[in-house]
Structure formats: structure tokens, C-alpha cells
Specification:
This protein has 313 residues and is mainly alpha-helical. It has 15 helices and no strands.
Length: 313
């Protein structure tokens, strides 16, 4: 064995092993995100804006309890003393509400496949933001991945006659959200709590108005639906908690590779519900999956990770 190879093997063996608990939490997060369309389909008869309002309202107590259990209330106190943090939290709150609203509507409208496409291309959009905003230089593999994804979208648009605007709104809003969250000096759970606090009064006001109009789905005559809407908080917060824990225990490259599990499951859920999937969709997804493979191989060879949003608790 050459000295270079020996040094390489020594360096690899010196890297700390990733705990199985980290994999378990990451797997839990992506399974929950991947299975989220099942929940959204169960409440698909409720208008998207009402579902989003319940996600906001019931996320507040769930996130609050988690913060108390984790002993992270001091982070909130620091955030409340920072006007900049509060202002940025208001901005990210608006972005995540757009993302949630479009996603809920897309699943209810039978367009889960397009939503999944958005989360497939999301890491590639992060790369483009790095080029435009941070003046980063793309590696060959990254250029190839972006080109393949663009070609896939072009096929779907030109030959399928469908511009996947849902995909771009979801990918774009989450990319900007992720970029802005990087500038906020607050962890994942305190940040989510702040964002939902900004949104809770408008959401509560909207639900009260629906009650007064007699059009609310949250009524005593439908206890099962009340239970489903109460679940909006846990299904929003728990995957984020699992992801944040896994991000602290796993290498970023591992998290980056596992992130594609979520949209893959969402894609399969869309097919399970018999959503429209044409030849143009198949060609588009073929290019997207090839782009994902090239993207992951390039990241692995470079010793880096795909650009995902990684936050502390």
C-alpha cells in the first residue's frame, strides 16, 4: 500500500462513526415528510388556507412544549431582545406560509407529483442561489446536474404542455426561506416558534371569522375532523425536531443524501392516488433523478454535501 493510500485510510478511519440514533431520527423526519400527503389528502375537502391556519395555531403549543423540555427558552428571550431577529422571523414566517399554502393546495388538487418535483429540484436551486448571491463557482458535476434538471423541466413544459409552476414556487419559496433562516441567529425550534407567533394572530382571526360565517370545519358535530386538525401541529413540528436532532449527530453529506427520500415518497404517494403522470412527466423525472445521482456523486467526490438547510435545535 502506498503512503498516500495509507494516509487516506488512516484519515477515513479517524472520522467519528455516526450514531445509529442519528440515522433513526433522519429516517423518521423524511418518512414523516414523505408521508405528509396522506394527512393532506385526509383534510383535502377543507380549504387550504384553513388547513394552514390550523398548522400555525397548533404548532405554537407543540413547539412551546418542546422548547421547555429542551431548555431552550433562553434562546427565545435573546431573540425577543433583537429587533433584527424579530424582523427576519417575520419575513421567514411569510415565506413559509406561502410554501405551506401552495403545498396543501397542491396535494388537495391532486398535484402531489408536481410538489415532489419541487423538493427534488430544491437543492439545485440552492446551488444557483450560491452562484448568484455568494458568487460561488460551480464544479462540473454541479453544472451537469443543473443542466439535466433544466432539460427535464423543459421537456415537461414544451412537450407536456405543463409549466410546473407549483414545483418552482415550492422550491423557490423554500430556498429563499432557507437562505434567510441562515442569517437568523436562532435554532430550528425557537425559529419555528417565532415564525408561528408572527402568524398566529392572523390565523386565529381568520378561523374566528370562519366560525362566525358558519363555514369552519372545526365544529363539535365533527369530532373526528377536530382531531385531524389538531394533528396539524404535531405533523408540522415533529419532523422538524427529528431533522434538527439528526443534523447534530450526522455528517452533512449523510443528511444531504437522505434528503431525497422525502420527495421520492411523496412522488409514490401521488402515483398511489392515481394522479396524472404522462410520458412527458416520466421523461422529466428521469432527467431529475439522473441530476440527483450526478449531484450526489459530485458531492461525495468533493467531500462536501449538497446544499441543504441544516440547523441546530
Amino acid at each position: 500500500m502506498s503512503e498516500t493510500a495509507a494516509n487516506k485510510n488512516t484519515a477515513l478511519s479517524a472520522q467519528p462513526r455516526e450514531p445509529l440514533s442519528g440515522f433513526a431520527f433522519a429516517l423518521g423526519a423524511y418518512l414523516l415528510w414523505g408521508g405528509l400527503p396522506f394527512y393532506m389528502k385526509a383534510v383535502a375537502h377543507i380549504p387550504a388556507y384553513e388547513v394552514v391556519a390550523h398548522r400555525v395555531i397548533w404548532s405554537v403549543p407543540v413547539a412551546g412544549v418542546i422548547l421547555l423540555l429542551l431548555g431552550r427558552t433562553s434562546d427565545l428571550k435573546a431573540a425577543f431582545r433583537s429587533p433584527r431577529t424579530l424582523a427576519l422571523a417575520a419575513l421567514t414566517a411569510g415565506l413559509i406560509s406561502i410554501n405551506w399554502g401552495v403545498y396543501v393546495w397542491a396535494v388537495a388538487a391532486g398535484r402531489t407529483v408536481e410538489a415532489a418535483l419541487g423538493y427534488y429540484i430544491n437543492p439545485l436551486v440552492f446551488v444557483l442561489v450560491g452562484v448568484v448571491v455568494n458568487k460561488e463557482v460551480l464544479r462540473r458535476g454541479q453544472v451537469a446536474a443543473v443542466a439535466l434538471a433544466a432539460l427535464g423541466v423543459a421537456v415537461l413544459t414544451l412537450y407536456g404542455g405543463v409549466f410546473p409552476w407549483i414545483s418552482f414556487v415550492l422550491a423557490g419559496s423554500f430556498t429563499v426561506y432557507g437562505y434567510m433562516r441562515k442569517t437568523v441567529n436562532v435554532g430550528a425550534m425557537p425559529g419555528l416558534f417565532l415564525e408561528t407567533l408572527w402568524l398566529v394572530l392572523p390565523a386565529l382571526g381568520w378561523l374566528v371569522w370562519l366560525q362566525m360565517q358558519g363555514t369552519s370545519a372545526f365544529v363539535p358535530e365533527q369530532p373526528g375532523m377536530i382531531g385531524m386538525l389538531l394533528l396539524a401541529g404535531p405533523v408540522t413540528v415533529v419532523p422538524l425536531l427529528c431533522f434538527a436532532i439528526s443534523a447534530r449527530r450526522l455528517r452533512l453529506s449523510t443528511i444531504g443524501f437522505m434528503q431525497f427520500l422525502g420527495p421520492t415518497l411523496q412522488f409514490l404517494v401521488g402515483l398511489y392516488y392515481g394522479e396524472h403522470f404522462s410520458l412527458a412527466h416520466a421523461i422529466c423525472f428521469g432527467f431529475i433523478w439522473l441530476a440527483v445521482i450526478v449531484f450526489c456523486i459530485d458531492a461525495w467526490q468533493a467531500g462536501r454535501q449538497p446544499r441543504v438547510v441544516e440547523e441546530s435545535l
